[in-house]
Amino acid sequence: MPYKHLLHFVFNKELSEIYITSIIRSFAFALIAVFIPAYLLKLGYPLNAVFSFYLYVAISYIIFVFLVIKIYTKIGLKHAMFISMPIFVVYFLLLYSLETYNWSLILVASVSSLATALYWSAFHIDFIRSSDRKHRGEELGMMNVFSYIAIIFAPLIGGLIISFLGFKVLFGFAALLLLIAPIPLFFTKDVYPPIKFSFRHVFHKESLKNFSVFFVEGIIGYTETVIWAIFIFLILKSFLSLGLLTTLLVLFTTFMTFILGRLSDVVNKRSIMKIGVFSSSVIWFLKTMASSFLHFTILNSLFGIAFTFISLPYMALFYNKAAKQHPAEFVIFRELSLTLGRVMILLFVILSGSFIGSFIIAGFSSLVFILF
What we know:
- The chain is mostly helical and 372 residues long.
- It contains 16 helices and no strands.
- Helix content is 81%, strand content 0%.
């Protein structure tokens, strides 16, 4: 393994806690996340209702992000991540019983957003605090490699479970994993960061540039995980095929993360990103012509390679930027900005009904990463 900084991971207990929790949580979500839009369609919800569900998720997330800031200072970052897990389980239980009780999608979306807001901002702040700036790209790459290795076959396993045992078994298995995930966090003391969020800490001469990049991150993230996933399912009409294609995406992402993790600390990060920016953009435009399993196989594999050239150095740069200023405020600013990007692309696809249009927007949006 080319990670010479592996010993830092072994002896940095706080960093290893984050890694282990992230791996277990990632596996649980990889089992099920890609299938949730298709699950809602299978239950008979119209396409726009499914897109609206994710719109509710994004809008309620903006509200909860501001609320959880105060929670971090009172209960600590690790307790916040811990509490998020049973709330995620409640989210899965609501999905599990949706067909029986016909829960409001706004309620289901809000529970998901609350758990996500509690977890991700705390995770990013804790990682910034625990990681080593000189080796942050390598440490981030290592965490991603471990997570990806753990989840390579998770979407395929999820597809097999759905096909042979049904969604309810999958929800139960994923919920059990989420209850186990936060246990490693309490091998060391919790952290109570003094957070007083103020936009004046994040609004400066680079704010518009940062906002633009975070905004398109949200656009691309939801176009890939929600809109593209639904597009594939509507054409192939197979949970197993969707799981297999997602596994291929993760497989090639893992391969490139393994290679780029070390390079991102010794090679100029923006030079690496430029390769991914232009290749990802081209792949999004090619996605507008996809219509078969072979097309999806090739494009998912290529995208797994190309977008890693963006995501790994980008996140290392993000953590470095956050560490230099007010980390908590910068993390919250990113969360709000990328969520607005999600809202925009969802509104576009709801109002236009155009999958192809969203892929074109994602293609042009990829170019904005070059500003970071």
